[in-house]
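=== RUN LOG ===
request id: a7f3
mode: sequence -> structure
chains: 1
length: 810
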Amino acid sequence: MSNFTWINFYRELANTLVQWQGRQTELISFIEGLREKGLLVPNFTDQDAAGNRFLLKEIDPFTFFAAFNRDTKSESRIAILKEVKKFFNLKSDMPEDFDGVPYQNNQKSWFFDYSRTRNEHDVEKLWKVFRLALTDNPLDSEEFMLSLNAAFGVNSVSYNLTSALFWIRPDIFIGLNGPVRAHFGLKIPRNKLSAEIYRETIKTLRAHGKSMPELSYEAWKGKQEVSSEARYWVGSVDVASFYTGATKEIKTSQPWRRQRVFIWGKETEYYSNLIKDIQVGDFFAVLGYTNTHTQANRYCAGRIVSKNKSGLLNIEIWEPELEGHIDLGDSHSTQQLFEVTDPKTIESIFGDDFPDSAPKYWAGGHVWGGKDSQKDRFIAGNIWEHNFQLTDERSAAKETFEKFTQIKPNDYFAIKGFGGSNDLTIYAVGRVKAVHEDSRRITYEPLESSLYHGKAPKLERGSSWFDTLIDVNSDDAVNSIFGTQIVKEMTNSQKSVNDDADIPLNLILYGPPGTGKTYRLMNEYFPKFTIGEKKNYSFVTFHQSYGYEEFIEGLRPTVKDGHITYSVVDGIFKEIAVKAAADPTNNYAIFIDEINRGNISKIFGELLTLIEHDKRTSPDNSTGFPVLLPYSKNLFSVPKNLYVIGTMNTADRSIALLDTALRRRFHFEELMPIYHIPEIDRDVDGVHLGKLLRTINDRIEYLYDREHVIGHAYLTDVQSLKDLCLVFRQKIIPLLQEYFFEDWDKTCQVLNCSTDEDGADNKHPMISAEEIQAGENIQKQGERRFSYRINPSFSKDQKDLGLFFNSVLD
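=== RESULT ===
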């Protein structure tokens, strides 16, 4: 039983703070003073529309309260409150517990936006609610109700305001945070929260016969008792299509809580095994598919509170139906029961305030003091830590401490290096096991992952790769750094029955030319599907005239006794699929080079459906989705042990333009130029190959895009400047001409041989530009045109070739 020792202290503070509306800058200075003393308080750096950063100039009382009601240790809260008591000369005893006190997300401690999007009267509205909440019977006051509705209209305000009202008046209000809504089955959409709904909810909760703090504490305890290893499951509302049995709804004696009970009948081994995996404490959502079967309506979401041997699931619900549809893609388009592991899908189905929310992604540097590398120590010990002190007043130290308090177990973490030419190198990737605030250290479980090295992906505003600790907050950065590991976790249920290949079942390697896509197939993937001398794979290259008849099956003419007859001939994919089905103990693969150059719909036909995981045939044929082929009239299905792996050159076609049906069924792994591999991180007669390639690619990306940069493979075999000259004359310059068709000026800009008033701006241009003399009758006044060609002096027989290549770097 809790004593709720925090209540008197919080109440006295609220009654004191209400008088400080005209002294907001003093409140901000006080919090900043706590930071200078090494206490963990929110960052009060504001930002305007131009991106300028500066200290807050206004603050509301709820944000002030949030400074000590965040997701931090009790010791940190107590330390702040000691300073608060001294500053305001409070008489109440210090709290000895924080039982039932809802806390703010460490990243969302403010109750208002940055100044760039903040409305003029937002802070004033919050002060008014605060002041009226402290009056007698505020829920009976029309003025309070109007001001509360106005405050709910402030950006960054939603359920968090109800928690803040509970801080200052726990005798009247209650916080409608995730645990409370979950524990009491409250169905309140975030976008429909209003003063009237809040008042009626409070009346409903009072029917329990307990005080608001007791109810909040009860919900808080319930959350603590829930297993952190809970899994997320989805079931279709139309279970009769796959299961014999019924769906029924049982109302309990409490009208605001409902329990949906699903009775699962006899079904295939695949689904019955899934049902066995579902455990009490897991999360469960009920969806209803739309006609497209790639989107769904969410009817409810909750937690499984009981389960019997026959598969009856008793689900305690707390979330209502969402507005709009949930996009499931094709991965679960017809499944009636499946597990969800993708963090973004979990959030879209179960809500952003759902307990055990999705993990976050972090990256920390390894260099202390600008020169002391801790990389080897970090990797050897599976740890990361920073060396800033609490007394350090520099902004870098403050921001690092602020971010460090937000790291949670099960978050992803990467150890990074960032330096010249904006290159990012990832040395290790792991899953956070524990966070030790006192020693400023995290421990992590290392994960097998391809470690990223290349140009640093863009981050959302507010983060920089130069920072000691960063929140990896953009999809591009997350996919680049953690993408391989995420693919593994998302596709654990989509692997072949024989997992030795350890790659996604359907995979496309994509990137600009020369980045090693085909090389990767030949040197990494071919061996995975080779047993001794036996090659369990086929290889094909798509092109514009390639079709279904070559890939699956088709009619081929033959001449016999002077007569032409037609017979059905199996295509390359059908041949390898038949072999894989006959040998279920081993993995097989078909490798498709230049997959984006073919007409996907024409080539794949019904195969686009058959390659999906849940449509594939198991070795005992108990599961699968066979179709009748149009020529042979035979049933055909794709076995679970057949991998489909393709390559795609983004210079030919952007991934964004790829056939949508194909894109949804494949995992994608990007391969970009690498500048620090030994093959090009070297000098050849005074020309550094890696630096030369990076310079050219930076200009291509600026003038065109990143999908048309040039891969490192073009330079890996260069042993002399003569070799390099041939590569430029025969491969790189023609490629640039293709990229910038009829725009020689941009080609010249990439190679640093643009024209100026004297005809050229360097003495050794690879491309020469001569002004065209068309005569006064043709040439307009002031307009100059040039004729471009590869400089004849730029030849493998030229003695001073280094001058041409170094001129590119000037």
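=== NOTES ===
The longest strand covers residues 423-436.
The mean pLDDT is 78.
=== END ===
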